Amino acid sequence: VNKLLGQGIEIQQAPQPFTHEGKVYGPGAFVVSMAQPKMGVIRWLLGRTFYPVNSFTVDGQGNPIRPYDMAADVMAEFMGVRVDPVDHTVAANLIELAAPIEPVGEVARGSHGYVIDGRLNHAFQAVNLLFDKGITVRRVDQPSAEMLQAGDFVVTGGSEADITDIARQTGVDFTALDRDATATSHELERLRIGMYQRYYGGNMDEGWTRWLLEHYGFPYSTLMDADIKSNELEEDYDVIILPADQVNSMVGEQEGEGSGGPYASGPESYPTEYRSGFGPEGVAALKTFVQNGGTLLTFAEAGSLPIEKFGLPLRNATESRPPSEFWCPGSTLRTKFDNANPLAYGMPDEGLATFLARNQAYEIVPTAHNDRIEVIASFPERDLLQSGWLIGEDVIAKKAAMVSVQYGQGRVVLIGFRAQHRAQTHGTFKLVFNTLVSGPETR
After folding, report:
1. Which of 12, 50, 152, 178 has its CA 20 to 30 A from that of 321?
2. Among 28, 29, 18, which Cα is nearest to 83's?
3. If you ran DSSP here, which 8-state letter would residue 9 be given?
4. Tens digit of each residue's pLDDT (9 = 90 or more) over 119-130
5. Is the pLDDT of residue 257 over 50?
6. Beta strands in 125-269 (DSSP E)
7. Predicted TM-score of the model (pTM)
8. For residue 334, with 0-12 CB atoms within 10 Å meaning exposed, 13-18 middle and 19 or more buried, which class applies?
């Protein structure tokens, strides 16, 4: 709502419940009328859209022409916000918003402390602020009659002043906890996070991920090539992130030279210390890191590195597909989430994922150890496209969109799409955040 207001869009809010076109809306619902100068912007940011397919978007051979950017920019879908299009003027008592909304979290202490709703992105910011103050946080693993949901956070300590300050900063409510939740929760540990950053022009996805981590209060370290090559990564890190990137851009060295990688024109034109690529030595170090208990988190095409180099029993269903067979250049796709799994705590049963060119969908290769693979998110059988442009939905239908693979004592978590794309896709941030907090297996 604040982002719409910032563009000069008029928004009204209902202080009381109302019914419109057969649906009941609670107090606080927002109404955005199309009868205003910015109706075109409203239409594209809030309404389901489809990229035009015509002589301007398809060449003479029937091949799709890549859009300059995204095939859809439906902000509401990116953010996981429900928007209902209506055909008639809303007849309700509405108040026009005169200023941006500044949420201030409410605090109500119970006999056993507080509860934070784990479905909120800013719940993780609150948890990180609690960690900063040395306050213990637990996470609920089993729903209970006390209205606790799997993924909720429980806080039993901390001064009232500290809790109130964090609620004010984040807008997150701290509600009363009146029963002991120790038996159905685990204590969180702050994980040590490292993220790979390469030379050769940098990586835009890494930059956006860096911004996201900082905005939500996750401490992290930047890992350059020399850091990745260390043989003792597990001594300093619990999670290492590989942002969306091609394998030859990350590995570099001989793989990049003459192959279209970073140094297609020859690495000798770059100073030695700035020749990006951690090479076979870095691959081996990452493999050892995971085998010794670490978590490797990959976004989109970066998933090819552990698949190819670690020999994971996965196949990217979109790999080497010509555009005439599979094409999805920045669209929102319907996705199912296993929210009983800690990596999807707080997610709905069904939602949307933003899928771009070079993103991945995973098919599990049959082996004797498929029990080591958990499917966290998957695409439905049909009708995948919500907004944008999709050719060949059968290529990814029923395929996994996010998986966790046990590898030695650790795991590789592959998110086939950019769950944090440009820090815009609020609806899937939790898939990233859940990987960056300790799960029940660490008890």
Report:
1. 50
2. 29
3. -
4. 999 999 999 999
5. no
6. 137-140, 153-155, 175-176, 185-187, 193-196, 221-223, 239-242
7. 0.93
8. middle
- Asked if 286 and 296 touch (Cβ cutoff 8 Å), the reply is yes
Q: How is residue 312 written in tokens?
A: 């994971």
End-to-end CA distance of the chain: 40
Closest CA to 92 of 42, 29, 37: 29
In the prediction, which pLDDT does 145 show?
65
Nearest to 341 by CA among 439, 426, 264: 439
Backbone angles phi, psi at 424, to 5 degrees: -105, -25
Task: Return phi, psi of residue 383, to 5°.
Answer: 55, 50
β-pair partners for 411: 295, 406
DSSP 8-state assignment for residue 385:
E
Q: Which tokens go with 300? A: 């989109």
The continuous run of DSSP H or E covering 43 comes out as helix 39-46
H or E stretch at 12? strand 12-13
How confident is the model at residue 364, as a pLDDT?
95
What are the Cα distances from residue 169, in Å, to 137, 215, 289? Answer: 18, 12, 36
Comparing C-alpha atoms, which of 403, 412, 431 is closest to residue 345?
431
pLDDT of residue 211: 97
Tell me the mean pLDDT in the region 157-163: 95
Q: What is the mean pLDDT of residues 365-386?
A: 95
Burial 253-273 (b: 16+ CB within 10 A, else e): bebbbeeebbbeeebeeeeee
Q: Is the pLDDT of residue 260 over 50?
A: no
Q: Alpha-carbon distance 411 to 234, whole Å?
A: 13
Q: Are 312 and 405 contacting, i.e. CB atoms less than 8 angstroms apart?
A: yes
What's the CA gap between 98 and 76, in Å, rounded? 21
Q: How far apart are CA 44 and CA 255, in angstroms?
A: 42
358-372 pLDDT tens trace: 999 999 999 988 999
Q: What CA–CA distance (Å, rounded) separates 12 from 396? A: 40
d(CA 10, CA 98): 9
Helix (H, G, I), strand (E, B), or coil: what is residue 351?
Answer: strand
List pLDDT tens digits, range 313-338: 999 999 999 999 999 999 999 999 99
Report the greatest alpha carbon distance in the chain. Answer: 71
